[in-house]
Amino acid sequence: MRLKLDENIPASVVPRLRQLGYDVETVLDEHLGGGARGKRGPRGL
After folding, report:
1. So what's the pLDDT on residue 13?
2. What pLDDT sits at residue 41?
3. DSSP character for 17?
4. For every one of its 45 residues, what pLDDT tens digit does the chain have, with 9 covering 90 and above?
5. Are strands 2-5 and 23-26 parallel, antiparallel or unpaired?
6. At CB < 8 A and 24+ separation, what contacts does 6-12 make?
7. For labelling, which of 18, 26, 27, 38 has a CA lying 20 to 30 Å from the CA of 4?
8. Which of 37, 35, 15 shows the shortest CA–CA distance to 26?
9. Do 5 and 14 contact (CB within 8 A), yes or no?
10. 3-34 burial by CB neighbour count: b if 16+ within 10 A, else e?
11. Chain-centre distance of CA 2, in angstroms?
12. Cα separations (Å) of 35 from 7, 15, 22, 44?
């Protein structure tokens, strides 16, 4: 199973999920993490 973990999930869980056989990527691995709310506009838009 493929999983994409959001930035609010601790990176420490990634190795364990991979050990269990999951194909894990994180949004930070793909440089998709969000910035500060003020930089993205109101309500993260």
Report:
1. 94
2. 53
3. H
4. 999 998 889 989 999 999 999 999 988 777 676 665 545 555 555
5. parallel
6. 7/33, 7/34
7. 38
8. 15
9. yes
10. eebeeebeeeebeeeeeeeeebebeeeeeeee
11. 13
12. 11, 25, 27, 9
d(CA 24, CA 2): 6
Pull the structure tokens for residue 8: 């609010």
pLDDT value at position 33? 67
Instruction: Write phi, then psi, for 17 (nearest 5 degrees).
Output: -60, -40
| 32 vs 27: CA distance, rounded Å | 5
Q: What pLDDT is stored for residue 12 in this prediction? A: 92
Quickly tell me which residue has 């990527």 as its tokens: 25
